[in-house]
Amino acid sequence: MDIYNKILETLDSHNGQLVAVSKTKPQEAILSLYDKGQRIFGENRVQELVEKHQDLPKDIQWHLIGHLQTNKVKFIAPFVSLIHSIDSVKLLKQVNSEAEKCERVIPVLLQFKIAEEATKYGFDMQTAIQFLESDLFSNLKHIVIVGVMGMATFTDDQDQVKKEFQSLKNIFDQLKEKYFKYEPSFKEISMGMSGDYQLALAEGSTMVRIGSLLFGHR
Ligand SMILES: *Cc1c(COP(=O)(O)O)cnc(C)c1O
Fold first, then answer.
1. pLDDT in tens, 65-104
2. Closest by alpha carbon to 8, among 16, 51, 184, 40?
3. Where are the beta strands (DSSP E) in 141-190?
């Protein structure tokens, strides 16, 4: 069995979804996975995402997974299926306003800082709570928050990675209970990459973002 089917089988047993991370990979590589039935692809740069969306089949669902600058939101707002990397209120406001221009409601995930490294983007719990309790949040009619996303520390220490995944699951559970209890659309936990997706699924991930395992090293 090839690696794609092995990943799908693991995902099936956890009810998880695969985001095939195709950043830096040529269109032929994407098409060959598309031919096997894959429809969700993730990119981390806006320009690459726009170009691939233009050139590739229109039933691909494109996810943005990397840091997004506010001045670039307008380029992806017309078509993006899910933005994983909402890391500030300012960015979320911008997504809302560009979505409104396109007469869309754009699904997004709130990215949380779960890694030890100080460089990772994302919300902390306090900022998220402040925002979710604000009038501003209830007035954003063109975004829908469907869950959370996080990236674990890049380390071989499985215990640490596991702890970080558990912290994101815990954040999800708290937010679900307090702010999204009656909103079935709030259900996604985007965590897990090539090296740690099985661990992530065991800890409650609903969406794994896998690149190098599928497409080879970048
Ligand atoms: C590149 C990337 C991935 C995929 O990483 P692999 O180790 O190649 O599976 C997942 N998430 C984000 C945010 C990325 O930038």
1. 999 999 999 999 999 999 999 999 999 999 999 999 999 9
2. 16
3. 143-150, 188-190
Ligand 1 atom, smallest distance to 23 CA: 1
Atom of ligand 1 nearest to the CA of 65: 13
- Ligand 1 centroid to residue 138 C-alpha, Å: 32
Q: Which of 109, 209, 213 to mutate to test ligand 1, by most ligand atoms within 8 A of the CB atom?
A: 209
Of 11, 21, 210, the residue with max ligand 1 atoms within 8 A of its CB, to mutate for a pocket test, comes to: 21
Q: Is the Cβ–Cβ distance between 201 and 10 less than 8 Å? A: yes
pTM of the model: 0.97
Contact 152, 191 (CB under 8 A): yes
User: For the segment 127-182, what is each residue's pLDDT rounded down to a tens digit?
Assistant: 999 999 999 999 999 999 999 999 999 999 999 999 999 999 999 999 999 999 99
Residue pointed to by tokens 């060959």: 32
- pLDDT tens for residues 10-29? 999 999 999 999 999 999 99
From the centroid of its chain, how far is CA 197? 14
- What is the rounded end-to-end Cα distance, in angstroms, of the chain? 23
Identify the residues whose C-beta falls under 6 Å from ligand 1.
Answer: 21, 23, 44, 65-66, 151, 193-195, 209-213
> Structure tokens of 83?
């933005």
